[in-house]
Task: inverse folding
């Protein structure tokens, strides 16, 4: 188990607030995101853990990649912004691990939710239709129907769990 610093504790608090907001409203407030980014920048300046300029370039590159996932509706805009908050609290090699682990956890949670809701076969069928249509250029993004909102997971939870796993192992 790694030593948890004050910056880790602050990131946990910001993530917990974001998770509760996401569960309650399906949105993460911009105030929470701005507070997290501000605290992350301030801590970076005082701790001087790694050059902010180099770290910022890496963060922007990763966020641009995550933006693609947002554009195809794989994750929400609040989730992309939440990743950006995390990026200010960890070095970029750990940040990549957080992204990877959160996507694995998100996939596991999604599959479990689909099985419990007895929608796995239906969604799998729709997924293959979507891939086929995407291959033939018939579709550009995945549309989530209003009644499918119950099938959507709160992706802030896998992000939070990925951070906990990375800090506690």
Result:
């Amino acid at each position: 188990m790694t030593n948890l610093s004050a910056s880790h504790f602050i990131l946990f608090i910001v993530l917990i607030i974001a998770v509760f907001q996401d569960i309650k409203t399906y949105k993460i407030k911009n105030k929470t995101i701005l507070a997290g980014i501000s605290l992350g920048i301030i801590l970076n300046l005082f701790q001087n853990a790694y050059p902010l300029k180099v770290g910022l370039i890496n963060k922007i590159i990763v966020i641009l990649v995550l933006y693609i996932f947002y554009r195809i509706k794989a994750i929400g805009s609040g989730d992309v912004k939440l990743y950006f908050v995390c990026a200010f609290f960890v070095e970029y090699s750990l940040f990549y691990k957080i992204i990877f682990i959160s996507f694995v956890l998100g996939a596991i949670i999604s599959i479990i939710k689909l099985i419990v809701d007895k929608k796995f076969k239906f969604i799998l069928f729709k997924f293959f239709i979507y891939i086929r249509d995407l291959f033939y250029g018939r579709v550009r993004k995945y549309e989530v129907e209003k009644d499918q909102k119950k099938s959507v997971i709160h992706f802030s939870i896998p992000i939070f769990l990925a951070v906990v796993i990375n800090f506690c192992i």
Summary: Residues 6-168 form one domain.
